[in-house]
Amino acid sequence: ERMRAAWASMENRHLSAAGIDGRVDHRSLKDQHADAVARGDLEAAERFNRPPEPKLRPGEKKRQTERTAEIAELRSYRAEVIDLTAERKRRRQRRHPDDLRAALERPTAQQSHLMEEAHARLTEARQQVTGGAIDGNRRQDRRAHDAAGAAGRQPVESGFATRTGPTAGGAIGRSGAAGGGAQGRNRHDQSPEAIARRRERSRRIEEAKARMGTLDTCNQAVRDRYKLQLLQGHYQQQMPAEIAADLAWVRDRGPANELVVQMRDGGRIRDDGAALRTKDDGTTMKFAAMAAAAKARGWADLEVEVSGGSRAFREKSAEALTRAGIAVKNADLAEVVFKTKQRMAAEAVRDDVAFVEQQLAAAEQRLAMHQRAAWDDSWTGPDGQRRPFTRAVPGIAQPVPARMTDDEIRDIAQPGWSGPRDRAKSLESTLADHREEYANLGALARLTAGSKREEIERLQAAIKQAHKEAAEKDRQWRQLGRQAGELERQADRMRDAAPTGFTQVSQVSSHDGWL
Predict the structure, then answer these.
(1) Cβ within 8 Å of residue 514, ≥6 positions away
(2) Could you please report the per-residue DSSP string of 230-263?
(3) Residue numbers of the domain that contains 234
(4) Do the beta carbons of residue 243 and residue 295 sit within 8 Å?
(5) Is pLDDT above 80 for 16?
């Protein structure tokens, strides 16, 4: 109690120095309530007259916060859902306004006709009543009921309760259909209550559409880029764009510096700064994201350990980390890491060879094109002069090409000028260079494969030696276990053979490596 009082006094001094009116009271609610009653402060007494709030442990408070966030997210999703039936109806009305206008005008004309007929019957009924007929009351009730059915009205004891307008149900009631008036009112109800309900429903639909306006204007690519920007903002590093399509949502815990990433296939990653955690649930999209996050954390210069999960899960994690350039220090995953590096080297060589082959094909195509152009453009005549080539057309006299003058030959032979033949020779030289580069790459690939093969053999020999050492250790442990069991049995026999009244204690020490 003294510690709580001293702590409250220190806090109040700091609040007073900061110019804040609020004060800290360390007493319980019961004591504060009694003090307020003694002072006569009924408002404060009412405020303190309550049970204490339940205290949550840190783990429970964290789970409650996460649950509240999930519920808020679910409610936001539900708020974006609209009534599909009403939306389809609204779109049909917008697409066919003329048909709807005609459909609305038909009931209006029918209602006017029914109103006139109802007034005529009502007038006839009143005349019969005022005429003093013997059964006037009976005929009045019957005709009034018919007129009410025709006009869409409801009879009461003292007369008629008139609605705001006749409905199309009057025609059904007048034709003899039971309950026709009610059925028509349900179909084409023009009462103020029905109109207000329809307007309210339309207003809710428009509000839902307004809330979904951002989703309608943003496509999937924009949302993927936004989620990728959240990751980049958390890690302060550039993230690979390939993982954006696999992200479902990204949630940053804020002060806790914890990041939760949900993948589209159901996998989830938690990054608390010290480790990347996920479940062994069979999903595969999370491995690339985990490797990218580890690389953004700066773990590329460290040795990362993969712990927990099944063998397949650990192998996939090691492969993803190795492809991201992160060293994995698990001894049991050394073979997986080596095979992954071997596949990466083979893929790199294959990509280089494919690029060189593509360049060779392009060079050969350009060479053939320029050779055809050189053949079509000119040819050398018997006099050694370059003549333009003219294709011979059967049945048509061909013009005889004129002899080139010395000035024209001098203009063609200007320094730096390259004709089709020179370009063809240049392309042939380029093609030879590409072929030489291709041969060098092939030799490099064979050399790399040889060195990799030697490294594989060396690692396989090391693995075999490790297996032999493990088998030898296992044999030694089993032998020590048998020796310990034999010593225990000897101790039991000596204890049984000891005289009565004496207890023989035998202490057996085990080998350090025996389990």
Answers:
(1) 477, 480, 481, 484
(2) HHHHHHTSPPPGGGGGGEEEEEE-GGG--EEEEE
(3) 218-329
(4) no
(5) yes
Threshold 0.85, pTM exceeds: no
Q: How far is CA 290 from CA 199, 242, 295, 300, in A?
A: 51, 13, 9, 13
What CA–CA distance (Å, rounded) separates 373 from 390?
A: 13
- How is residue 415 written in tokens? 């320094």
19 in a structural domain: no
Q: Is 174 helix (H, G, I), strand (E, B) or coil?
A: helix
Residue 321 resides in a domain: yes
- Domain termination residue (choose one: 294, 329, 364): 329
- Pairing state between β 276-278 and 159-161: unpaired
CB 114 within 8 A of CB 78: no
Please tell me whether residues 107 and 192 are part of one structural domain: yes
* Whether residues 254 and 145 fall in one domain: no
Distance CA 515, CA 497 (A): 30
Least confident window among 107-111, 325-329, 396-400: 396-400
Structurally, the chain folds into a number of domains equal to 3
- Are the C-beta atoms of residues 170 and 116 closer than 8 Å to each other? no
Distance between CA atoms of residues 509 and 503, nearest Å: 19
- pLDDT (0 to 100) of residue 141: 55
Q: Evaluate whether residue 48 is within a structural domain.
A: no
